[in-house]
Amino acid sequence: MKIPAGIDPTREFYVDYKPGGRMVFIQPKPKKVPEQKYKVRSHDGQCFKISWTALSYSPFLLDMLDDAERDNIHPEDIILDVDCPSDVLKKVLQWCIYHKHDITEIQPWDMWGKDPLLMDFSISL
């Protein structure tokens, strides 16, 4: 069976037979599920909401979220308390939101272009 253009073979689709034996391919549109939003609160009490995708660009916030989830707190009740001023936190969250669709992942050792096991870390005095 040849799948016509416009049908994504990696997703579920149906075949319907019309009168005369003609096959019609039907692929339902994927349902958009709203992404979970989390609350982040600065030490001066200002709250911000951020999606998990954007939040995942901050290892610090992601660790705090993992700790809260480990304590079996419902996602809607999680408030991440960060010990920094609201203007700094706002800039960090703006950066995370701006980069949330970036796909590239840079490994720390890739920045130097050297193998960490072969590097000379000795200090000459």
UniProtKB/TrEMBL annotation:
Among the Pfam families in the record, one is: Skp1_POZ
InterPro entries associated with the record? SKP1-like, SKP1/BTB/POZ_sf, Skp1_comp_POZ
Q: Which domain of life is it from?
A: Eukaryota
Q: Where is the SKP1 component POZ domain?
A: 39-100
Transmembrane intervals: none
Gene Ontology annotations of biological process type: ubiquitin-dependent protein catabolic process
Q: What does this protein do?
A: Essential component of the SCF (SKP1-CUL1-F-box protein) E3 ubiquitin ligase complexes, which mediate the ubiquitination and subsequent proteasomal degradation of target proteins. Controls sulfur metabolite repression, probably by mediating the inactivation or degradation of the metR transcription factor.
The entry sums up its family as follows: Belongs to the SKP1 family.
Entry protein name: SKP1 component POZ domain-containing protein
**What are the top taxonomic ranks of the organism?**
Eukaryota, Fungi, Dikarya, Ascomycota, Pezizomycotina
